[in-house]
Amino acid sequence: MGYTNSSLISYTQLSPNHSGQRTHSIDRITPHCVVGQLSCESICGCFTSPSREASCNYGIGTDGRISLCVEEKNRSWCSSSNANDQRAITIECASDTTEPYAMNDKVYASLINLCTDICKRYGKKKLLWFADKDKSLNYNPAADEMIITVHRWFSNKSCPGNWLYARLGDLATKVTANLGGSTSPTADNLYRVQVGAYKNKANAEAQLNRVKAAGFDTYMVQVDGMYKIQVGAYRQKANADSMMAKLKSASFDAFVTTKSGTAASSAPTKKSIDEIAREVIRGDWGNGADRKDRLTAAGYDYEAVQARVNALLG
Can you give the residue ranges of the SPOR domain (predicted)? Predict the structure, then answer.
């Protein structure tokens, strides 16, 4: 098939980190969060070193501008899954440095526009979000359908963060409406499965971690003065009922609700100085002043990290 690139881009810096032309047609979009309120130029700059072994097709900077890092014809190295990256357009979106990795309105609006543009160019009328890993990865999309997948399904990561994860149903709805396809319910009318509601945030975080440890994609929202732990955001109630049954089988008290809220941050899990130092050596944190700023913003002791880097390289 023929491949094109988006006309919405305002900056191009092509990364050498890709596997050449795809071996599968494009039928997925995988939005990511890139930690730090970076510009679209800086997002591309993160992927210029071959030693980093990571890249994306597009970056959306904190001001909403879009950059091209890997042409759509080529497979980026973004989702910790060869199979997913072969068929997905991957998009890194500027976010906050801590969970829920919130994105500002400009970034989210550009993500909607970019997803709409991608779908239009490949003849898609619907963008689908099932909020279920197994269903999404086993679904064979029709010729006019595009599916959303997420990085956390393929690696032990929060990406795309709970802020965006809680809005993927809304993203799918708005893009599908832009495409003129059959619209799905609004974000407020999506079906979610709730597994706890707490006044005390620490208790909510404990439940969040229990549900995650059991293998479920979950997130925390704040609504009506309560911290609520929810799983999924489904268009069809039958899909929510199926997830509720799975959660109950795992001994969680669960019920279906259409009420959501604002994504709430959970206590970030910091990596060890040794882990961060090895990431620095790999090139994940940039160089010079940029590295220092990013490490400091993420809450790490720059001098301690640098000392460990020197020791490892010594």
Answer: 185-259
Residue 79 above 50 pLDDT?
yes
Q: Distance between CA atoms of 124 and 156, rounded to whole angstroms?
A: 31
Beta bridge partners of 35: 95
Structure tokens of 236?
A: 């069809």
User: What confidence score (pLDDT) does residue 311 get?
Assistant: 86
For residue 149, which of 9, 26, 18, 14 has the smallest C-alpha distance? 26
For 227, the 3-state DSSP assignment is strand
Q: All domains of the chain, ordered by start, with CATH?
A: 11-179 (3.40.80.10), 187-263 (3.30.70.1070), 273-313 (no CATH)
Q: Which of 164, 107, 172, 170 has the alpha carbon at shortest distance from 136?
A: 172
CB 185 within 8 A of CB 171: no
The token pair at 224 is 């009506």
Q: What is the DSSP letter of 24?
A: S
Q: How many residues does the chain have?
A: 314
Closest by Cα among 267, 272, 260 to 308: 272
pLDDT digit string (tens) for 219-245?
A: 888 888 899 999 988 878 888 899 999
pTM: 0.71
Give the angle subtended at the CA of 288 by the CAs of 287 and 290, to the nearest 5°: 75
* Whole-number CA gyration radius for the chain: 19
Taking each helix axis from N to C terminus, what angle separates 273-282 and 302-313, rounded to the nearest 10 degrees? 70
Say yes or no to pLDDT of 300 above 50. yes
Give the integer Cα–Cα distance in Å for 193 and 270.
29
Beta strand extents in 72-150 (DSSP E only): 74-76, 88-95, 126-128, 145-148
Distance CA 164, CA 91 (A): 12
Q: Is 1 helix (H, G, I), strand (E, B) or coil?
A: coil
Query: DSSP secondary-structure letter at 7?
Result: T
